[in-house]
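Q: For a teaching session next week I want to show students how multiple molecules come together into a single three-dimensional assembly. I've collected the sequence lines for a complex. Could you give me the predicted structure tokens for the whole thing so I can convert them for display?
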Amino acid sequence: QKEVEQDPGPLSVPEGAIVSLNCTYSNSAFQYFMWYRQYSRKGPELLMYTYSSGNKEDGRFTAQVDKSSKYISLFIRDSQPSDSATYLCAMSTSGGSNYKLTFGKGTLLTVNP
Amino acid sequence: NAGVTQTPKFRILKIGQSMTLQCTQDMNHNYMYWYRQDPGMGLKLIYYSVGAGITDKGEVPNGYNVSRSTTEDFPLRLELAAPSQTSVYFCASSSPPGGLADTQYFGPGTRLTVL
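A: Of course. Below is the structure for the complete assembly, covering every listed component.
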């Protein structure tokens, strides 16, 4: 079983739709969870950062972590064509002293106008 | 403030050639990383560094070498290029003062093709 599993998609939705992106993981030591957004032919950029279980909201984006199920999600409300990108989940066992991230393979999202 | 910069943006190599991918950051980050990204395969860590003079292997180090003589620069060396090294290479840095080391900032990438 891979440490981090992410459905590669592709996922295509109409503008205004609610998008749900997910990752599962097997390492129960993961505590820090991130979502990166990567536009075509660009480097990844940090979108959301959460610690342990719970929800975090930032504008149209909500990140959820369920450590009991080893499952994380990113929700995008009122999706826009500018949200079209690859979304990568990433996680690590601790901040500060352990800095190595484990990435999912990424989900390609297209939002159609 | 340019962030993380990488050169070149594109390169085609012949099998057996050597090259150095350059990476520079101006954020005074201690930690720097090199990843490769193959289509549909996510990001794989090649090497990382926690400060000048300190480097260590990541998940896929074979065929690569690194050095870190300054805080700002972290070049990646390919000695004998092979077709399996065709990929997009990303450099990243982390650890802003007072921040958490896991927040990594990525450069724009170098697209390398080995023929």
